[in-house]
Amino acid sequence: MSAGGSGPAGLAGMKTGKLPVNAMKRSVLGQIRTKRSEVLSGAGMGEDCAIFSSGPEETAAVCVQEAVLRTAGAGAAAARQPVREADMALADLIVKCANNLAAGGARPVAVMIALLLPEAVREPEIRALMAEAEEKCAELSIEIAGGQTRITAAVSAPLATVTAYGAAAKGRDYSARAAAPGQDVVLSKWIGLEGTARIAQCRRGQLLERYPAWLVEEAASFGKYLSVLPEAEIALTHGVCAMHDASEGGIFGALWELAEGAGTGLTIDMRKLPLRQETVEVCECCGVNPYELLSGGCLIMATWDGPGLRQALEEARISAVIVGKVTDSHDRILLNGGETRYLDRTGTDSIYAVMPHSG
Questions:
Q1: Domains 17-169 and 176-353 belong to one CATH topology
Q2: Per-residue pLDDT for 46 more than 70?
Q3: Residue (of 214, 238, 228) closest to 311 by Cα position
Q4: Which residues contact 28 (CB under 8 A, 6 or more apart)?
Q5: Which fold has domain 17-169?
Q6: CA end-to-end span of the chain, whole Å?
Q7: How far apart are CA 198 and CA 54, in angstroms?
Q8: Are 57 and 169 in contact (CB under 8 A)?
Q9: Structural domain boundaries of the chain?
């Protein structure tokens, strides 16, 4: 990460421009501790790019994600902004990037983080953001390899762009286009986890009027399930052919994207789609469709041996279920008992019906 300029930092607001050097050293670079051998040159003063090693049998994988950040404290200006469901924690944005790499068959190695911060931000808040990022990266064994931190009057809330880098085996394709008719469709964990956590955090008061505190708190804690790195790693050694991480648009959107990418059809048993009871209750209370709700933490896998993959995941204490088949037609069919319906491309994620989004 690079920065320029000078001046006092701390509890006062920031001046427009790059983060002051001393603040950069204290609150950004000083928070980065996790290291990986693949990163030959990473975050540091005056370092404007990162250098990565690549083995003879590997290729590089890259993913970029951006979001308005939801933080515990991001300055007076940001504090006046309404809580919005589209806003993300920086840690969750890092997980989202890592999940995208893992679903592509890559091993996440490093991230670069660009932060645009409002003038009202204070240095302790920057330090807290970077500490949050480092904690999540350490958990995922990912190095923060660099980025930019800039103060600007153009934003009223923190905005982050995370670019993640990974290494993948040469000659292997685990994208949606690798799914083929006859393969089983396996889901890990549960659908709607990410959306359930965000709604429970933002609508806690409303939910507590109807449900016991333990249920609301458990729903709000679903962020602990968002990483799909463990199941992706297991899937790679147990016959997976294609992977796709469910996210915005919910499980319906993710299944449609899988079939569209493969140019195939699907037959899915809706009764087998795994739902936590907390998700059912939160969605019912807030009028949200759980099947079109943010589903980060759920990995869709296509394989010729669904029972074998499911068993491998369950032996690792990762819940998994076979929900259907890839078919040789272009029909995306949802079965629900005696009822049959067709899966269409989903529109806006149903979480946006709960609160205004940041777009």
A1: no
A2: no
A3: 238
A4: 1, 3, 19, 126, 127, 130, 149
A5: 60s Ribosomal Protein L30; Chain: A; (3.30.1330)
A6: 28
A7: 37
A8: yes
A9: 17-169, 176-353
Structure tokens at 306: 């669904």
18 Cβ neighbours under 8 A, 6+ residues apart:
2, 3, 4, 5, 24, 148, 149, 150, 151
Cα–Cα distance for residue pair 242/300, rounded to 1 Å: 8
Amino acid at 254: A
Stated pTM of the model: 0.83
Task: Decide: 193 and 222 in contact? Cβ < 8 Å.
Answer: yes
Per DSSP, the residues of 132-195 read HHHHHHHHHT-EEEEEEEEE-TT-SS-EEEEEEEEEEETT---SGGG--TT-EEEEES-TTHHH
Query: Which of these, 154, 145, 159, 156, lies nearest to 115 by C-alpha position?
Result: 159
**Which is nearest to 225 in space by CA: 196, 252, 257, 184?**
196
Say what percent of the chain tops pLDDT 70.
Answer: 79
What is the spatial distance between Cα 22 and Cα 145, in angstroms, rounded to a whole number? 19
Question: pLDDT above 90 covers what percent of the chain?
Answer: 56
C-beta separation of 184 from 306 below 8 A:
yes
Q: Are 178 and 66 spatial neighbours (Cβ–Cβ below 8 Å)?
A: no
CA dist., res. 215 & res. 217, Å (int): 5
pLDDT at 54 over 50: yes
- With 0-12 CB in 10 A as exposed, 13-18 as middle and 19+ as buried, what is 326? buried
Alpha-carbon distance values, 38 to 108, 139, 142, 336 (Å): 11, 17, 10, 48
- Which range among 12-21, 62-71, 138-147 shows the weakest confidence by mean pLDDT? 12-21
At the topology level, CATH places domain 176-353 in Phosphoribosyl-aminoimidazole Synthetase; Chain A, domain 2 (3.90.650)
Helices (H), the chain: 21-23, 75-79, 90-103, 123-140, 193-202, 204-208, 213-220, 229-236, 250-262, 277-286, 306-315
Place of tokens 């970029």: 64
- How is the beta sheet containing 143-151 ordered, strand by strand? 17-18, 143-151, 106-117, 159-169, 58-68
- Return the number of other C-beta atoms located less than 10 Å from residue 280's C-beta: 13
State the pairing for strand pair 265-269/320-327: antiparallel
